Amino acid sequence: MNTKAMINQLTVVLASAVVAAFTGCGGELHESAAPVQLVITNTQDIFRIDLAGGTGCDQNLGTIEMRAVVKNASTSDNRFNDVRVTRYRVSYIRTDGGKQVPSPFVRSIDTLLTANGGVSGLTRFTIFEQEAISLAPFAALLPQNGGRDPETGRTIVHMDVIVEIFGQTLAGENVSGSTRFPVDFCFNCSGCA
């Protein structure tokens, strides 16, 4: 499998689903003045990505669940508390002591979340831009470049992929939430798992 095809397959399914708890699996809440909290959680299916491709690399990294939760449960009219999700930002942080990470990026999306309820449609989105694999820190893992991360000396790069979701209530209040996916990257390491 070529690198471009591999990147096209590294997507996350964005599922606006009702979640049982307000936190979980790496979800974070962001305090704001808005009467609504944007609760973001995830379920992760892949924890290791083989940059060479292979077994298991044709599946999604996981799913993200979003929910608009009204802070004051006594509010009876929630029409203006619905949240229009407008964009997401993907960034990275190394968890292995290295400093080099791919460049963050922002993408537009358009999803409406009903306050305190409702399941929205599914949206797929990319967690890496196509050229990221040919840049640091991943390029160093390729055999022609030595096969080791120069910052850690290891054949594996450990990092968290951070997905931040942004939107506004229909009343115009900004809301956001984020979640993390811990992922190991390697080259020719028996596929994705």
Break the fold down into its secondary structure elements and pairings:
Elements: H1 3-9, E1 11-15, E2 27-29, E3 36-44, E4 48-50, E5 62-70, E6 83-94, E7 105-113, E8 122-126, E9 157-169, E10 174-186
Parallel strand pairs: 1-5, 4-10
Antiparallel strand pairs: 1-8, 2-10, 3-5, 6-7, 6-9, 9-10
Measured on Cα atoms, how large is the radius of gyration?
A: 18 Å
Helix content: under 10%
CATH structural class? Mainly Beta
Morphology: elongated
- CATH hierarchy: architecture: Sandwich
The overall pLDDT average reads 83
Task: Estimate nothing, just give the exact number of structural domains.
Answer: 1
Number of helices: 1
| CATH topology grouping | Immunoglobulin-like
Q: Please count the beta strands (DSSP E, at least 2 residues each).
A: 10
Short descriptors:
193 residues; mainly beta; Immunoglobulin-like; 4-stranded mixed beta sheet; 10 strands; disordered N terminus
